């Protein structure tokens, strides 16, 4: 998982999915588990198989995994209808294998960061796309590296020529350096603070792994330090051999100064002057997706897509192999039913094992670029299962252990009160680019869902499971501390498989557009509360936005009524197709390719990420916040433009839900 | 018609339509005329009714026409299922009613251009969006005002401070001033040269109207002098009351210096120093579309759209009222069948009477912006009939007069040799923004067609019918010289109605994707001939483009084979829907919203207009031409980028035609 700050808000969800749209028809239901007749789930051995060797993108381990997946998906008894590999040539970032990156403090302290202290045979990136360089300067603590952190620090200190040390969280990885550079900061260190990840535990004698799920002092959290997703040299184009590549100097959204992640053990050792010797360099390398399909019986031209990435930092037992295990298990169960002639879904199912996700969701993004038209026209939904389980010993009871259902657990530990339904399981929003759903929802406007089983947040303040992106994310760690017995893996496999089957097989798509209306109404009321007066002071009326949301609600109610009044199974197949098309294309109606022209791949005006930190329309929130802060006429114009874009998109969505002519 | 240079290339076509895609199934066939059972066509009285008063956009005459059309379309016996008006507030350009624009030569000669010399009660724009100003300078003749014209002129003359006089043709209207300004030219006059429009005739005693179809010496050809289409203050947004409007200073693509069209009588009178007094000014005004629908019986969520604009310069008997007459006649005939319960099309039909076309295709563009999602998802085709007849006494025989068919005339006077079919009727390409099809094909990627009956080009060199955009385009002119007896109007009504009914009613859409492949192959072979070596010299291979076109051809052949092997009427309705969706969405697959970021509304990478003047892929042609001329590395990069965009689009189109999973 290329986890970014934007995902943090949704980690509390047991099932995290975009929009309330999916919620009504199955999210909330106490559905049967279609996969329950197949209890022979074998994620344990799969996970062991998948995590034996490191499988960073383009490593020999990655290629082994490709072969392993192809073998499984081409298995004559349990494979899919078809499976193949697709190759892209993408821009990745690696350390120099001969000259390790180094952090030096005076004469006395020095540490190399290329072979991993926890796993010495592995040479691999720590901060992908962080530039090479040799900054040396006084160390300053810059909190989370947010713009406000540097702004405040600069009130009392001259930051020019300093090296900033920041902790993970609160700001995207690259942002910590991008925000620093304007103040003259020449290098950035990033560490994982035990208060953010370990509930304060930091002793390697008895508090951290292998004694618990907490990260040991030497653990280093890696990551990709780019802010756009997809191959950076081929924006909007699939990265084939002959594809045009932009000049490297035109790349935006990467750190302008050398940056290096370190463990908290080292962070606490650093004082005074620090020197960084960073030798990272970029290379064009091949990376593969593995694709598999089950052909639909009735509507082969409608796709439900299910995916996860394959590459990891070091071993990646949880991220991503927990998700890969689940995917392989789902394909094995469904594949066997298909091969035995017992079942074939109404719609087609496409499985994708994405390459190079950790470098910026590259495999999935290139796939959406290459098949843009076809996927836009035909995809019903995308399901992502990446970190299937991040539960640990603090986990809520899993269904397997006491036979309470996912529904019961979900509504107990993560709920909200809906105006329409009362207390229901809560669902987060996919407003960021945390994993491979990003290109599907933000670029293509395909309704998407990210599923994982998570921990009880009242029991830990951990930002994410502590071994995340470190060399400690191993089979041993996962089997001891994350999911002993792998029962939660089973639960996720059954849940995801269930969702997949309902999407692929139900006559009427299990989407509820009135739930979407509820979300828009929530966003609207927040926008009115925050922005009405400020906009009015600049002669901009928020009223047309109210009208648009009201129209959306009416159109949704009309469609719901039409569905209730219909006997779809016994009417012409074109009627249910028509209604399904309205539901399928609803998220597409929110796309506007010129809404955010400087943000590659963000076209969805409801779910785009936002810096404003408000539960409301992202484009309007960001533009308003900026205008209110600068007071510039041009910024108020942009706020008005964002408002008009939003109104037109919501009206357009209402039109697609409304009477078809 | 907002006719521009780009349309010139297609005037030779009897039926002008985008892509060969429509050709195969009905374009070439000697089809029956479905409308032939209704011979009571009444375009004559319609035309008289429509042209009694001037109906420039926002004029009282325009409002009268709106009311007239609503009355017709809401008629209980011959109206449509539903009809209504839709209002936009758009940025238009008008002269000052109190202070006429003036051209002055020394002391002796002066002419006012606000009330029309031919039609004194009409005060209206000559050059919409040409700025106000009072330039005075030496007059220089600058041919057609092309970049090369000014470049050559500047070799021998200092153009600074001069007023250029140019003739219509060879360059877009605004271009004549945009190209001039960098040389210091301070004003531009544009006239219609008798050699270009009148076959050299210029006497008002016996050679020109009212003695013939030729334009009298006083005739002035008006036009809109903007290069982008749609409301200029609200790009990509429907121009509602509250919509954000860009600052006027940010408008691009309009003349930077005062510009005035004049008649050739005046052009020949001008010598030496000339002074222009231009008082044009811009205003926000309401403009309406009139919409009407016939609901489809089987697939109401599939639309065939038929449209024409309603506004004209002065009376506009031909442009647009010949087309409006035809549309009213088609709606009357179809409406009556529907009201009598005798017929209802399989798919829905939407009729649009667009406002403010002459100012830059504004009504149709705002419509596509407002209903973007719904129209993208559901539109099968757009048919435009604007200038229905521009035939005059030079016309080819019309079917009415000697009962030869449209097909016979078409193949006789305008044919080509196809590799697949031999000699067939020729079809032009809609590569420009000549009329309201522009937003449909270039912005939305909806397969479009523009139909008009034209003259025998071996008999006249006229750029277009001579009264075009002058006050002489009247009912009298049309009934005497363009279409005596209005038989060609009938022919066009039957042809357009026939096409419309086939699109709306046939089980399988009458699209032939193999004809599209033939066009792509033609473009490819031209591109290879012109660009292979030059690209190779910059390490850019054209081979992947060959592969993409080959893949498209295979996919098209596969789909054709599937259609031939199917018994669609007796298989599941979802099968023909699936195939129809592939055909319908084929043109959509060629859209790329980031291909031409500085050209509003151009997203179709095959049919976008091009300056290179080659029958090949426009983006590649323009980028290559530029790179070859400047030799700059960045320009070669752009050529490579355009090539990659093109390859990806063609591959994407091949994917949509290919096996659906």
TrEMBL record, chains A, B:
GO terms for biological process: proteolysis. Keywords: Aminopeptidase, Calcium, Disulfide bond, Glycoprotein, Hydrolase, Metal-binding, Metalloprotease, Protease, Zinc. GO terms for cellular component: apical plasma membrane. CDD domains: M28_PSMA_like, PA_GCPII_like. Transmembrane segments: none annotated. It is found in: Apical cell membrane. Residues 136-224 form the PA domain. GO terms for molecular function: aminopeptidase activity; carboxypeptidase activity; metal ion binding; metallopeptidase activity. Residues 289-479 form the Peptidase M28 domain. Its cofactor is Zn(2+). Pfam families: PA (PF02225), Peptidase_M28 (PF04389), TFR_dimer (PF04253). It is a single-pass type II membrane protein. Belongs to the peptidase M28 family. M28B subfamily. Aminopeptidase with broad substrate specificity. Has lower activity with substrates that have Asp or Glu in the P2' position, or Pro in the P3' position. Lacks activity with substrates that have both Pro in the P3' position and Asp or Glu in the P2' position. Lacks carboxypeptidase activity. Lacks dipeptidyl-peptidase IV type activity. This is Aminopeptidase NAALADL1. It comes from Oncorhynchus mykiss (Rainbow trout).
């Amino acid at each position: 998982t290329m986890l970014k700050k934007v995902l943090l808000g949704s980690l509390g969800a047991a099932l995290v999915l975009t929009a309330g749209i999916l919620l009504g028809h199955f999210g909330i239901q106490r559905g049967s588990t279609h996969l329950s007749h197949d209890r022979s789930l074998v994620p344990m051995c799969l996970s062991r198989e998948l995590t034996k060797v490191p499988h960073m993108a383009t490593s020999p381990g990655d290629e082994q995994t490709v072969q392993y997946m192809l073998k499984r998906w081409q298995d004559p008894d349990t494979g899919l209808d078809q499976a193949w590999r697709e190759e892209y040539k993408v821009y990745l970032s690696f350390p120099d294998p001969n000259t390790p990156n180094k952090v030096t403090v005076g004469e006395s302290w020095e540490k190399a960061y290329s072979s991993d202290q926890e796993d010495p045979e592995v040479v691999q990136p720590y901060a992908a796309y962080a530039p090479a360089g040799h900054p040396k300067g006084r160390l300053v603590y810059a909190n989370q590296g947010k713009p406000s952190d540097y702004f405040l620090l600069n009130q009392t200190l001259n930051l020019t020529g300093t090296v900033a040390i920041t902790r993970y969280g609160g700001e995207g990885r690259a942002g910590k350096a991008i925000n620093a550079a304007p103040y003259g900061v020449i290098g950035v260190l990033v560490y994982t603070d035990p208060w953010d990840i370990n509930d304060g535990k930091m002793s390697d004698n008895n508090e951290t792994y292998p004694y618990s799920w907490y990260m040991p002092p030497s653990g280093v959290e890696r990551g990709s330090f780019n802010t756009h997703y997809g191959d950076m040299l081929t924006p909007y184009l699939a990265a084939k051999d002959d594809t045009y590549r932009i000049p490297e100097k035109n790349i935006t959204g990467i750190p302008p100064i050398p940056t290096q992640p370190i463990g908290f053990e080292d962070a606490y050792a650093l004082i005074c002057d620090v020197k960084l010797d960073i030798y990272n360099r970029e290379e064009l390398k091949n990376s593969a997706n593995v694709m598999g399909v089950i052909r639909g019986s009735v509507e082969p031209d409608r796709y439900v897509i299910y995916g996860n990435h394959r590459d990891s930092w070091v071993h990646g037992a949880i991220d991503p192999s927990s998700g890969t295990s689940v995917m392989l298990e789902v394909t094995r169960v469904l594949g066997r039913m298909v091969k035995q002639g017992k079942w074939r879904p109404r719609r087609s199912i496409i499985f994708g094992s994405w390459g190079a996700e950790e470098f910026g969701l590259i495999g999935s993004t290139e796939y959406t670029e290459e098949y843009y038209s076809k996927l836009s026209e035909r995809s019903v939904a995308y399901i992502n299962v990446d970190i299937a389980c991040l539960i640990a010993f603090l986990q809520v009871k899993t269904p397997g252990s006491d036979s309470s259902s996912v529904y019961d657990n979900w509504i107990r530990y993560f709920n909200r009160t809906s105006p329409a339904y009362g207390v229901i399981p809560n669902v987060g929003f996919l407003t960021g680019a945390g994993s491979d759903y990003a290109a599907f929802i933000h670029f293509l406007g395909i309704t998407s869902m990210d599923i994982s089983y998570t921990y009880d947040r009242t029991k830990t303040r951990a930002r994410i499971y502590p071994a995340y992106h470190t060399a400690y994310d191993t089979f041993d760690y996962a089997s001891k501390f994350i999911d002993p017995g792998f029962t939660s893996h089973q639960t996720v496999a059954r849940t995801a498989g269930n969702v997949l089957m309902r999407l692929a097989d139900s006559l009427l798509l299990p989407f509820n557009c009135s739930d979407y209306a509820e979300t828009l109404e929530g966003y609207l009321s927040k926008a009115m509360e925050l922005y009405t007066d400020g906009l009015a002071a600049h002669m901009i009326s928020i009223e047309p936005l109210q009208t648009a949301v009201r129209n959306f609600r009416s159109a949704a109610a009309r469609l719901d009524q039409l569905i209730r009044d219909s006997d779809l199974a016994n009417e012409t197949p074109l009627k249910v197709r028509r209604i399904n098309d309205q539901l399928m294309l609803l998220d597409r109606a929110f796309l506007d390719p010129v809404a955010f022209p400087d943000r590659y791949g963000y076209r969805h005006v409801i779910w785009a990420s936002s810096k404003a930190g408000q539960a409301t329309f992202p484009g309007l929130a960001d533009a308003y916040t900026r205008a209110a802060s600068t007071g510039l006429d041009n910024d108020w114009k942009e706020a008005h433009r964002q408002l008009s874009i939003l109104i037109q998109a919501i009206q357009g969505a209402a039109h697609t839900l409304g009477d078809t002519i």
